[in-house]
Amino acid sequence: MKPVKFEYHAPATVDEALALLGRYGGEAKILAGGQSLMPLMNFRLSRPAALIDLNRIASLAYIREDDGHLAFGAMTRQRTVEFSPVVAQRLPLLREATRWVGHLPIRSRGTIGGSIAHADPAAEYPAVLTALDGEVRVRGPRGERVLKASDLFVTYLTTRLEPDEILTEVRLPAMPAGAGHAFEEFARRHGDFAIVGIAAMVVRDGGRCRQARLATAGAGPVPVRLRAAEEILERDGLGDRAIEAATARAAELVSPDADIHASADYRRHLTRVLAARALRRAAGPGARRG
Amino acid sequence: MMSPESTRERWIGRPVKRVEDHRLLTGRGTYIDDHPPVANVHAAAIVRSPHAHARILGYDVSAALAMPGVVGVITGADVAASTKPFGVGVTAPVHYYCAATDKARFVGEPVAVVVAKNRYLAEDAAEAVVVHYEPLPAVVDPERALEPDAPVLHETVGTNLAGNRRLVYGDPDRAFAEAEVVIRERFRFPKYASTPIETYGVIARWDGLDGVLTVWSNFMGPFIMHPLVARVLGLPENRLRFIVPPDIGGSFGIKSSIYPYMALIGLAAMKTGVAVKWIEDRREHLLASSSGTDRVAYRELAARRDGTILGMRYRWIDNVGGYIRSPEPGCSFRPTGNFVGPYAFQHLEVDASVVMTNKSLTGPNRGYACGHLYFETEGMIDRLAATLGMDPVAVRRKNLIPATAFPYRTPTGGLYDSGDYEATLDRALEHADYAGLRRRQVEARAAGRWFGIGVALAVDPSVSNMGYVATALDPQFRAKPEYLPKSGAMDAATVKVDPLGRVTAIMATTPQGQGHQTVVSQIIADELGLRPEDVTVVDEMDTFTRVWSISSGTYSSRFGSVGAGAAALAARKLRAKLVDYAAHLMEVPVEQVEFRDGTARMKGGQGPSYTVKDLAGRAHWNATSMPEGMEQGLQATAVFGFSVAGAVDAQDRVNSSNTYGFIAEVMAVEIDRATAAVTIDKYVTVHDAGTIINPMIAEGQIYGGALHGLGGAMFEELAYDDDGQLLTGTFMDYLVPTASEAPTIDIAHVVSPSPLTPLGSKGLGESSSMTVPAVLANAVSDALAPLGVRITQLPITPSRLWHLIEDAKT
User: Fold this and answer.
1) Start-end ranges of CATH 3.30.365.10 in chain B?
2) Which CATH code fits B294-468+646-809?
3) Is the pLDDT reported for residue A290 higher than 60?
4) Which pLDDT value is given to residue B6?
5) CATH classification of B32-136+194-288 is 3.90.1170.50, yes or no?
């Protein structure tokens, strides 16, 4: 388990990193936290000609409040997100999801940008980005562009980023005041990638549900926004019957694959179970009417 | 003989802190990969078959040889030309070499070795080795492998059946004819491994001038593999030196199966002329180290309506993978003496088939074959209880071997040395509050919850008798005059006193984390009236300098009785000499001298006294002060060897282990009705391992054993697709339970000292690894009894369990 020979670069700026990416013409890989890439390289499943290490680019690690959004520099560590007061206040769903990311040493190295760019559909951050309609900023030789969550993920480990582009920032809209949230996940062991995970947010307005957000992890090749299920809740509220109907719909909206950990049917079933648990928790006490 | 007059508390029985932990916890251990025994060591990378089954048509190593830093490439052709195949434990003509020669028979089988300046260059060159394969159809299921049209792995054998024995004890046909109740079930046990933190490692140096091959490795024994490797490499035994580093990072059975790599890397050193180091990486470990067998078992149980078991039939199909590698078929026969477990029934038929398929090879894995045995037996007992409407505890109690029956000879030849099974069971029931759990179950069921209670019992065999492997051979074959019977289990220890009175003990065991240094220092401190810190224990097995025999090594939980016993005997021998010497100095008959608290003195207290230090100084500095006829110097070597375990007899009976402990467990689980996730609510494990030398170390062993068993029960399986490709090649897919998955483990001990060992101790290292699969399966089955779901296959994953429940609902 030794990687094939590769060049290593540790640029100090994004511009330098972009220049290096261009120089290798798609043969280089960006190194962020390295929690997925390094094992892939040691298995020789990933064989880049060069690694361009973003860890020395100090300007890529930040959390900023900006125009109703929280903006995260791509190199912000998951551990930083976990303990950020502003995240706790404005994006508690992200904070809760972070606790499901691997184990402490993994979160200490892993980054928010790396997790999203890696696009493992069973990971937590892509599900949160999808649920909250977030977006990512991307820089490349043709300048900067913004990709919405709904446009970002193509399939397993694949995004719409071009090989010469770098994901520089993750932007998530701050959750509305009074929003309820929950991140539910089922894995065979603590810290594993999800068999299924559900990110949920609801905004209640008296007995009604003004806004519902539901997205999956692990229930298919990309995180899935369960819009048709959300609509049921936004129409019928957050009572038991509405949640029942919405989660039954949710199970129909996913196309999970089978692997050695779980069958497709079981994942579909879990989607429904976890969505219900997440919604009940997000809706909070007193939501069991109707 | 144990200093009964001592006024001090004994060190044995106290949770003495491990002397090993300082170095291990501060990163100062010396493992095989830390080992720099020689300069200019080169690295090996092993080329492995990507095919589950393929004929090897040829090799092209020219590109690899031309790459930077490469000093040589050894292929299967070299292996075929320069080595012999290993002996196997069956009569079928299976040719098992240290690397593939004619065919590759499992994914990951070594086909070539590249030796280069470092591991990076070696792996680069390994990719450049071209092996021409003709892929062949593969078979991975052991029952499918026995069908007439299945692909055959070994043409010389002509079938995938490596061996079959039908063993009959008592009159099982009559037992079944007279039965009022007959229970039948089919079970599947998964292929899982040991997964120590430290993988395999081998360093080999060929000294061409002396003709000596030195092999350093984290090999745990048994050292029967030393003569086998010598024969394979064509070396006289005293020109092949095995050295084991002072620390091994866990083994749990799996590092007995490293010996083919010792031959392969030895050959690479001999062929290239450089010292060669190979450290197995995790991918290689999961792909091709060793595991227990996967087994299909058909069980039948005959009983009376009152719950008395009359007899059983076991039909096993054990899957040993591409070749039957020694000590297989231990998978079927290692528990021969304890086939009946803790139960008194006398009639048994065992039909054991050992099958080769295109999976990786198998061997000892903690609890060697006992996890399989008790998963099936304890499952059958619960089915009997359910059929009769009896409590599972009551059925077990009815059939237990009574405490008055010890030492107890089992119908299969086992000699259970000591125990009180019913008292141990009672202790477990009391700790678990069994009656309270049953009350909770009634409440839970009334509330629609799935709450279940499992019970499992196991006889815990330790110190394997090497001779059991011959159960695999026909009695007619064993009766031939040229057949040499096999038996035995021995270890040696040397204790010496330095001129200032401190003690060094030299052992020939291969500690893998069990704390041998600590335990031996406790034993010797007691025998010589010293403190453990006065005793330095040196292990580092070396076949050139240590006293050893073919049974040497640390496996089958033997250290606690054999190695520890040898240390006690050596210390006693030395103590007797100290007393003789003191009597000579005092000019009194030896009968008037006693040894207490590290001092030899006249009985009654008058006259001079001599401490160990006094005697050491005199003996070393003034050697002629020793009496005539006494061997000079202060050292003693002793061997402890069991004599109760002989060779297999003509009726296939064998005392397959030397001591037999006992385990009683109770587990309560709750199953999430929505996700089918199993939560362990209570887990009680009570052990009778005779005298407990260090309760802290014993507890650690039980924790580890229980988690290992939990792995097989819920998480771990080396899974293959139908083409023989491994699906669990990384730790993302091969799931090992971690601290987060560990339940609270409530441990208690019952002590029935073994009459056969110097300290009364028995083995404890495998312990709950053999019971957790059984107790968990029984608990889950009990929880789901209202649905009629019964566990017949492990691991119990949430997805599998959910499907079982869904199927039962419809």
Assistant:
1) 21-28+490-641, 294-468+646-809
2) 3.30.365.10
3) no
4) 54
5) yes
| Two tokens, residue B245 | 């580093």
Domains and CATH numbers, chain A: 7-56 (3.30.43.10), 58-173 (3.30.465.10), 182-283 (3.30.390.50)
Residues 6+ apart with CB under 8 A from B591: none
Are the C-beta atoms of residues A66 and A87 closer than 8 Å to each other? no
Partner residue facing B123 (CB), from A2, A262, A266: A2
The confidence score (pLDDT) of residue A288 equals: 40
Considering the four listed CATH numbers 3.40.50.2300, 3.50.50.60, 2.60.40.10, 3.30.365.10, the one that applies to the domain covering B21-28+490-641 is 3.30.365.10
- Segments of chain B assigned to CATH 3.90.1170.50: 32-136+194-288
- Which residues, in sequence order, are bridge partners of residue B635? B496
Q: Mean pLDDT of all residues in chain B?
A: 96
Contact of A163 with A21, CB cutoff 8 Å: yes
Q: Which residues of B touch A190 (CB under 8 A)?
A: 738, 740-741
The answer to whether the CB atoms of B675 and A186 lie below 8 A apart is yes
Among the partner-chain residues A192, A260, A273, the one whose CB lies closest to the CB of B727 is: A260
Give the CA count within 13 Å in the CB-facing half-sphere of B51: 18
Neighbours of B673 (CB within 10 A): 12
* Kind of pairing between the strands at B240-243 and B212-217: parallel
Q: Considering only the C-alpha atoms of chain B, give the largest distance between any 2 of them, rounded to a whole number of Å.
A: 91
Is the distance from CB of B392 to CB of B381 less than 8 angstroms? yes
In whole angstroms, what separates CA B261 from the centre of its chain? 19
Tally A–B CB contacts below 8 A: 59
Cα distances (angstroms) measured from residue B582 to each of B502, B622, B629:
17, 14, 15
Sign of CA pseudo-dihedral B575, B578, B584, B586: negative
The residues of B whose Cβ lies within 8 A of any Cβ of A are 119-120, 123-124, 127, 281-283, 674-675, 677, 715, 719, 727-728, 730, 732-733, 735, 737-738, 740-741, 797-799, 802-803
**How many alpha carbons lie under 13 Å from residue A94 in its C-beta half-sphere?**
34
DSSP label at residue B512: S
Number of helical H runs and strand E runs in chain B: 20, 28
Cα B657 to its chain centre, rounded Å, is 12
CA A191 to chain centre: 15
> Residue B192 gets which letter from DSSP?
-
Q: What is the pLDDT of residues B602-646, one digit of tens each?
A: 998 778 899 999 999 999 999 999 999 999 999 999 999 999 989
All residues of chain A having their beta carbon less than 8 Å from the beta carbon of residue B728 are 260
Interchain proximity B799–A263, CB inside 8 Å: yes
**To which residue do tokens 């649920």 refer?**
A131
- Give the strand order in the sheet containing B503-507: B535-538, B503-507, B490-497, B635-641
**DSSP conformation class of B155:** T
Report CB contact under 8 Å: B802, A39.
no
Q: Please tell me if residue A257 touches chain B, with a CB cutoff of 8 Å.
A: no
Q: Using a CB-CB distance cutoff of 8 angstroms, which residues of chain B are in contact with residue A2? A: 119-120, 123
Spatial distance between the Cα atoms of B296 and B317, rounded to a whole number of angstroms = 5
10 Å Cβ neighbour count for B391? 15
What backbone phi and psi angles, to 5 degrees, belong to B805? -65, -45
Distance (Å, whole) CA A212 – CA A35:
32
B580/B168 Cα distance (integer angstroms): 54
Q: Residue B342 — very low, low, confident or very high, per pLDDT cuts 50/70/90? A: very high
In A, minimum Cα distance to B678 occurs at A188
pLDDT tens-digit readout, B151-176: 999 999 999 999 999 999 999 999 99
Beta-carbon separation of A261 and B124 below 8 A: no
